[in-house]
Specification:
- The chain starts with a strand and ends with a helix.
- Strand 2 (about 15-25) and strand 3 (about 30-35) form a beta hairpin.
- It is of the alpha+beta class.
- It has helices at about 5-10, 90-110, 135-150, 165-170, 225-250, 255-285, 305-315, 345-355, 375-380; strands at about 5, 15-25, 30-35, 35, 50-55, 55-65, 65-70, 80-85, 115-120, 125-130, 155-160, 185, 190-195, 210-215, 220-225, 290-300, 320-325, 330-335, 355-360, 365-370.
- The strands form five sheets. A six-stranded antiparallel barrel has the order 2-3-7-6-5-8. A five-stranded mixed sheet has the order 16-17-18-20-19, with helices on both faces.
């Protein structure tokens, strides 16, 4: 006996009564079947409803051969009349996301003569795949068009056309369909075969935001949010932008320009630091000119700076230059010997004595050691 689907008659129905027809232990709990249900089963890219049934928590819902099974956290008695209540926040969120997807997909397919080839309503975002290329300008225009449609508050129509009516109907479908087909129509935007739940009018979607558009297989993948999810996302990003603006002494609508100024200032500061570094390293090189082999212990600095100092001093000292930069028991090192030669054995000995790791090639080595300043000084004494 097929389960009566109350969610098709009224997707806004949140409570109902039904008779328990079956209950058996299954994966993840007890599989309960009813004579009728308002719980939507997973399908068509839309997750299942959650809620309660006869005091039991409903954690999943699936349909097979017209029979809907509710995964419950405890058993129910066959023959009992039970009351069910769906998690309305979850259901309405899915209705907003699914309806927003319809509106955007219909507009994209019509404007770019392509197909929606993939749809997933996830816990955080919705993804839609199209077998077409979209530019950034296309995405902006499509988002604006979708929101205009939403705000015009078009009524949504659900129908079950006869085979003859279906044959004459221009509608979207990812596969060939047999039997009774359910058509969801967003007049002026989309007409699609769909088994999901949807809002009664486009205005209830509220808002649609496209988060990203990335190349995917032979087309693109869009990541979108609708309704409450879109509002939450925009509120969070606005708050983040407001905080950035406060730190940059800029209006929330002018943070990009403020960041550009900050980046320019940072680049100028880096240039000044690089020039100062070259001056200091050149002075070091003069200090150790013709001194032969040199070992320098310096304050912490980046590995690139360690290498540059070793290279600069090695150019004047006439021997091998080791530079260790760090503090405590962690030091980065670099060794440069412009006379070249294989340094593998030399570096291996240093690593073994000073608990280090690293390697090198002809005339150059780089790595780090876990040793104290005194241990380094004693080794090279």
């Amino acid at each position: 006996m097929e389960t009566e689907k109350l969610y098709y008659a009224d997707p806004y129905q949140t409570t109902f009564t039904a008779t328990v027809l079956g209950c058996e232990a299954g994966k993840g709990g007890y599989l309960v079947t009813l004579d009728r249900t308002a719980f939507y089963p997973e399908g068509g890219g839309q997750p299942a409803d959650h809620g309660t049934l006869g005091g039991a928590a409903v954690t999943d819902v699936h349909e097979k051969d017209g029979v809907i099974a509710h995964t419950c956290d405890r058993p129910l008695t066959v023959g009992d009349t039970v009351e069910g209540a769906i998690d309305w926040d979850r259901r309405f969120d899915h209705m907003q996301q699914h309806s927003g997807e319809h509106i955007l997909s219909g507009l994209i397919c019509a404007a770019h003569h392509c197909d929606n080839v993939g749809f997933h309503l996830g816990a955080d975002t919705v993804t839609i795949d199209f077998n077409a290329a979209l530019t950034e300008e296309d995405v902006q225009e499509l988002e604006a068009a979708a929101n205009r449609y939403i705000w015009q508050d078009h009524p949504i129509a659900i129908s079950f056309p006869s085979p003859a009516e279906l044959e004459a109907l221009d509608y979207r479908s990812k596969k060939e369909l047999t039997g009774q087909v359910r058509i969801v129509s967003f007049p002026g935007a989309d007409c699609c075969a769909c088994c999901g739940t949807h809002v009664a009018s486009s205005g209830q979607v509220g808002l649609l935001k496209i988060l990203s558009c990335q190349k995917f297989r032979q087309g693109v993948r869009l990541e979108i949010l609708s309704g409450r999810r879109a509002l939450t996302y925009l509120s969070q990003t606005w708050d983040q932008n407001r905080q950035v603006g406060q730190r940059l002494s800029a209006k929330a609508t002018e943070t990009a320009a403020a960041v550009e100024r900050l980046e320019a200032e940072l680049a100028a500061t880096k240039d000044r630091c690089a020039a100062l570094e070259r001056t200091v390293f050149a002075a070091k090189a003069e200090e150790y000119r013709d001194k032969g082999d040199v070992t320098l212990l310096e304050s912490p600095m980046g590995s690139d700076a360690v290498r540059r100092l070793a290279d600069t001093v090695a150019g004047t000292c006439g021997g091998r230059c080791w530079v260790f930069a760090g503090e405590g028991e962690h030091w980065n090192y670099a060794m440069v010997d412009h006379r070249s030669g294989d340094v593998k054995e030399l570096v291996g000995a240093v690593n073994a004595a000073l608990r280090g790791r690293g390697g090198g090639k002809k005339g150059f080595a780089q790595g780090s050691v876990q040793a104290t300043r005194q241990e380094i000084e004693d080794y090279f004494a």
